[in-house]
Amino acid sequence: MSNQKILELKDIKREFRMGSEIVRALKGVTFDVTAGEFVTIMGSSGSGKTTLLNTLGCLDKPSEGTYLLDGVDIKKLGRNELAKLRNLKIGFVFQAYNLLPRTSALENVELPLMYNPEISSKERKERAIKALEAVNLGDRLDHTPNQLSGGQQQRVAIARALVNEPVMILADEATGNLDSRSSYSIMALFQELNARGKTIVFVTHEPDIASFSSRTIMLKDGRVMKDSPNENRKYAKEVLAALPKSDDY
Amino acid sequence: MSFFNLLRIALKALQRNKLRAFLTMLGIIIGVASVIAMVAIGQGSKQSIQQALSGMGSNMIIIRPNSNISAGARLDASAVQTLTLDDVKALQKQAPHLSAVTPLASAKGQAIYGNNNWPTTIQGVNPQYLDVIRQWPLKDGISFTDRDVQSQNKVCLLGQTVITNLFPNGESPIGKYIRFGKVPMLVIGTLTAKGESAFGQDQDDVILAPFTTVQRRILSTIYLQNIYASALDENSTTAASDEISDILRTTHRLKSTDEDDFAVRTMQELINTFSSTSQLLTILLAVISGISLLVGGIGIMNIMYVSVTERTKEIGLRMSIGARGMDILLQFLTEAILISITGGIIGVILGITSARLVTVFLSWPTLVTEYSILLSFLVCFITGVFFGYYPAQKASRLDPIEALRYE
Question: What is the per-residue DSSP string for chain A?
């Protein structure tokens, strides 16, 4: 694992104008993420979590401060260049999965590659199959979202995030809609991906989920309150194995 | 994103809402079908009117000698004899807008067969008078030929009024000899009934003969009463009559200060009526087609707006994984164009079919022209682009953050 910096945030501020009032969602956030880290960003509602996530995902630009993603300063980029950056460098995983309905798992995973003109349809398909195999869904290629369980849908979403081989996977409450068994299984998958070298930034408000990561950043009131490595990191696979076999609740 | 992928996504989106896509198309389908069918009916009736008009000789041009001044007194036109066979020959050679020219010599007199007789007119013409200028088919027998004209043969064709008066018992006049005045003539053919002319004359009360026969054997003159000509079509009538004036002024050696010693008459009034009617019809059809396609287009726009709102989350997702605004715009535009073009194709098929049905069941003449099909397609495409653009633009300008959170 190299020490290459994937994210560099320096004094990020973000203000919104709501009528005559100015809401300051981020009041100067500074931290770096190096390649191969599994970072959890935690915070209660209104702490600026979502705004930070949007900034990290290049969906929003900071009002002040610099944000380098894989060495690229996003402040200088236009709408279309940001779209390209998202396409090539970031894999999103959302709380509500956001799969296209009535579209097969394979086609859902192919989607990011569709917006990359350099990839042929043959390569697109091969890579999508590989990504689905990596999340253990190699046998569900033709299933549509409504034929899959929540956990499986989230796996498809993770495969979609992986398919472009991004420098970072950005997960927004990725286990928020799942029961605990599926959550652990998803976390196990994230840990597995992390072990293979993927950088993961995970936004959550559940301390339980945060304990699976290697580092936790606590946000409060638009500022970083705590930024520390996790001392006793848990392994989702072990937790999963420890769960009672038949949980009828 | 490649065009093929855009098309695939659009097809898929339409498939997801088949009924809605079809109902949206219905506006376009009905619009295009009615345009095609109506234009077909319009063109069909235009064609049949055109045929009826040229049957009346709408492109016919009549040249008469004009009144002239002789020793200060204006002379009656009938007393003036200025047109000669040389004029006819000059016109035949030099006028490219004319399809046929014939001299016309006419004489009034008594036609006699057995103990029946009838006062009528004999007209001496060229063979072309019948088929090109008047488009007057024979009912029976044969027409005379150029050879008959050359050798002044005493043959003739009888109009229906003459036949009923000379042959009241219904026997066939063909092969019989009648007399016109003192000249015996062999009947070789009969003319179909043509009815009254626009001027109230009985057009069937006529005997047609080679013009040399009438000119030499009956009238004994070298001058002609009239020259009849036929323009290539209705539209070139004006050009043709100008041409005739020029040629005749030259052959008659008139100075630029001299008045014409002839008069050129066209069926301009008839043509004007006809062209203004067909123009009105065309404008009417254009307006109707415009309105129906406008309504169809508004339907597309409406549904596309609904579709954009409905798929806000999808748009947000696509943007978050790297779709540019242009990709989203093209996606929705393709969908709108696909609806309008598919509607157009179905509409054209339906329009042609209903035009056929109108012909079969109502026996109205219809004519489906390529240009109406082409035009409908073009208008459909433009409708798709025009009415699809604004919803697509709205989609492309969405903020991905808000779109993702849209419920």
Answer: ----EEEEEEEEEEEEEETTEEEEEEEEEEEEEETT-EEEEE--TTSSHHHHHHHHTTSS--SEEEEEETTEEGGG--HHHHHHHHHHHEEEE-TT--PPTTS-HHHHHHHHHHT-TTS-HHHHHHHHHHHHHHTT-TT-TT--GGGS-HHHHHHHHHHHHHTT--SEEEEESTTTTS-HHHHHHHHHHHHHHHHTT-EEEEEES-HHHHTTSSEEEEEETTEEEEEEE-SS---HHHHHHHS-SS---
